[in-house]
């Protein structure tokens, strides 16, 4: 355990400054191009609870419109109390949290081209990002908007359960849905295209936004998949534009 802590400290000393630099750069891009909404990166590599909350305050003053988390990539559980002050600050400032919510690493990746991030077969699989790990957060911060990416990924049934219990959780469609011509990142555990409309309506179409995961995954096939599904024209309009405007408070 002591060795693990030392290694964590060593890695954080490298990642933290880079993440701050990227956050500052992203906010600058957002100011230059107002149509882009910059979300800042967030992990405990930035320091303790207070340091993470301070990063949110600073970047919000620089134009940040939300916070992006990747529990799997940074090996942290979203319901770790160390994140509580950061969540509190986001709730206070009205900044949404967008989080990856799929398995990591992808030991069974099926993809359109080789992706070295997906072939970490030697690593232990830990489900840091499993949707149920957000339940305590959603309950403790009822005014915090949490967007779970990859609705069609593994554990999509857990997303339905969260949606039925917590009105402050939303979802995006990034990575697509399993179909003969559309193999998402977690294909064998993904939501089948044939079930998408039924599942969306069970959750509430108004709580789901179109997403892509670009540049890692091409946009066009994912857009075409949404367009060919038997949603009403109104539902497609909500998924592709209206929901994002409302949830992200785009004027």
What are the main properties of this structure?
251 residues; alpha/beta; 6-stranded parallel sheet; 9 helices; 6 strands; 43% helix; 8% strand; globular
Task: Please provide a written account of the structure.
Mean pLDDT is 91; it is low at 107-122. β3, α5 and β4 (146-148) form a beta-alpha-beta unit. The chain has 9 helices and 6 strands, in the order αβαβααβαβαβαβαα. It is of the alpha/beta class and 251 residues long.
Number of helices: 9
Based on DSSP secondary structure assignment, what is the total number of beta strands?
A: 6
What string, H for helix and E for strand, traces the elements in order? HEHEHHEHEHEHEHH
Specify the structural class. Answer: alpha/beta
Shape: globular
| Global Rg | 18 Å
User: How much is the average pLDDT?
Assistant: 91
Helix content estimate: 40-55%
Distance between the termini: 49 Å
The amount of beta strand, in percent, is: 5-15%
Identify low-pLDDT runs: 107-122
How would a textbook summarize the main sheet?
Answer: 6 strands, parallel
Adjacency order of strands in the biggest sheet = 1-2-3-4-5-6
Outline of the structure:
The chain has 251 residues and is of the alpha/beta class. 43% of the residues lie in helices and 8% in strands.
Strand and helix map with partners:
Blueprint (H helix, E strand, L loop, with lengths): L1 H31 L6 E3 L7 H13 L4 E4 L1 H4 L9 H10 L3 E3 L35 H6 L5 E3 L7 H10 L3 E4 L23 H8 L4 E2 L9 H10 L4 H15 L4
Parallel strand pairs: 1-2, 2-3, 3-4, 4-5, 5-6
Helix pairs in contact: 2-4
